[in-house]
Amino acid sequence: MFERIREKLNILADAAKYDVSCSSSGGTRKNDNKGLGNSHTSGICHTYTEDGRCVSLLKILLTNHCIYDCAFCVSRKSNDVKRAAFTVDEVVELTMNFYRRNYIEGLFLSSGIFKNADFTMERLLLIVKKLRLEQRYNGYIHLKTIPGASDELIKEAGLYADRMSINLEMPTEAGLKLLAPEKSHADVIKPLAFVQQNIVQFGEDKKLIKHVPKFVPAGQSTQMVVGATPESDKDIMYTANTFYKNFALKRVYYSGYIPISNDSRMPILGTQPPLLRENRLYQTDWLMRFYGFNVQEILNDENPNLDVDIDPKLSWAIRNMQHFPVDINKADYQMILRVPGIGVMSAKKIVQARKFGRLRIDQLKKIGVAYNRAKHFISCADSPYQLKDYQGTEIKAFILADSQSKYLKTAQNQLLLF
Amino acid sequence: MTYIFDGSLTGLLTSVFEWFERKPGKVTLKSAEIFQPEAFAESLEIIADQGKADRVWAGLQKKLQKDWLRKFYCSYLSELPDAYHHLFQFSCYIFQQQKGAENNYGNEHVIALSKYAKSVEREKHRMEAFIRFQQTADNIFYAGIDPDFNVLPLISNHFKNRYADQQWIIYDLKRKYGLHYNLDTVEEVSINFEKGSAQQNLTPALTDEKEQLYALLWKDYFKSANIVARKNTKLHLQHVPKRYWKYLTEKQLS
Questions:
Q1: What domains can you pick out in chain A, each with its CATH number?
Q2: Which residues of A touch B130 (CB under 8 A)?
Q3: ipTM over 0.85 threshold
Q4: How close A173 comes to chain B (CA, Å)?
Q5: Which UniProt keywords apply (chain A) (predicted)?
Q6: In this complex, is the C-beta atom of B245 within 8 Å of any C-beta atom belonging to chain A?
Q7: Which of A48, A104, A226 to mutate to test the interface with B (most CBs of B within 10 A)?
Q8: Residue-wise pLDDT tens digits, B122-178
Q9: Coil, strand or helix: which one is A309?
Q10: Are residues B99 and B18 in the same domain?
Q11: Does A6 touch chain B if contact means CB atoms closer than 8 Å?
Q12: pLDDT in tens, A145-200
């Protein structure tokens, strides 16, 4: 019995790990029934795997039996792997006992599609209902919406889950058709839109009626696989931007493709996952969401791909030197935020601090500005006088000369000969 | 001039009161624990006085928003000698300025406090993340910790709200006190461990029979969730510094 549950957990956790979302933020559930669990607004990462990814949720599949045969997925029908399925009680027990020991922040439950969408969604719903209603569990629940499941089931699941998500898988329709001919983006868009409408509707009701149940309080997210098909960074980020805009998504995740099969349509086994590219995409995502950049400023027809050697913010600044230098003591917050080497926290502190007097270099350093990078783009009270206006390319050379990329040395499997 | 105080929050606030009472000019604040008499410097021993401390705290409450009162308290909990001095200087600065002076990030004491508070809040958050309870045979969930800063007062509510239906003890092995939640309230406790037995992890004899099973399942899960092709030890260590490994069930060998 005990060995069997270990084996199941190994199989079904292993199959679930390619879903990168592990955030537990945005939950608003309070422990008001003297039960177990109370959400933490910003989420908590309880540990990190050796690949440096956070573990905050018990991320498992209910089963890895699947009727689909998507080339990029380990659980595809034609793949020769061990199959297993949890019972409802097993998932509930695992979640409760892991949570009680402060191992996890909650449950991330996904599943292969067995029989059909409704049958799968019903099983997922059984688990979350049992946790919430019988076990008085108030921890975080991230639930996969199964595309094609009926509206009633999805709506009911939304009453118990904190976040729901459906993966786009490939950034473009063409890419998806190539690797998973049975699927389309439209299958994803329909339930995403349905859940989004309900989130808005429940929000509206809440303004008028006091006791409205929570509906997916932590919002929705999606994920795209990067590097399995030949899309440009522009394609990927434009798709992400559209989904952020149309469905008010909380997050779009980018998952570097890790070769798992000999399929000739995709990178061969043993190819390094595109970790650097993934990182650059996340940086762009952050610039869009927190730094007030339009995706068109960073990626466009002249620059369809992100620079590998420098980050997208620096890359934008170098292409747009006409905006610099920025006077730290006068410029508005939005412009300060665009300076390479200044983050959101530093920008906020600068705007506060300069009310008390003109800021100097030493103060900027203490505030947390990466001065060696920022100095090419700013002027402050005691900036040294500069005779020459440097070109963007020269500045790039300066910055590259005194910084080391954390990637270039590790990302390749190639050893140095000398 | 050096002010020497007893290391308590009351003492620290009293010394601010005394400074305004006497206006002795430039003062350094040190706790009695680390104070070394100097040949040519004067010193004054501050006697903690609840009345005076309350007046200073009430004054700070008038001048500062809630978030800054918390930063003040967090900096105090850091227990760092320099933090005491900065807290003292910060208070004097705040009382001498118009309201809103805490936003002057160009001031060294303001920036110092925000940094101490950040470190302490980070440690608090790490405790919320890295504490691992072990279920004892008498059904209490136990965790022994030795945090860099005195964060027990900060994490008490988090655990009380979260684990409302189970008894738990979180014990600070370094500072020799702990918190016990008895399904109703959280109380401060101190445990007399048998010599040499004060420890992070309980021996199997003391734990519930299911404890080892779940610990094992958790270790299995931790291994399964890793993607070998993405191995990144540097990032791993950045997120989970080695000094915390002793807390983590998934990092224990057996």
A1: 2-298 (3.20.20.70), 312-401 (no CATH)
A2: 46-47
A3: yes
A4: 27
A5: Iron, Iron-sulfur, Metal-binding, S-adenosyl-L-methionine
A6: no
A7: A48
A8: 999 999 999 999 999 989 999 999 999 999 999 999 999 999 999 999 999 999 999
A9: coil
A10: yes
A11: yes
A12: 999 999 999 999 999 999 999 999 999 999 999 999 999 999 999 999 999 999 99
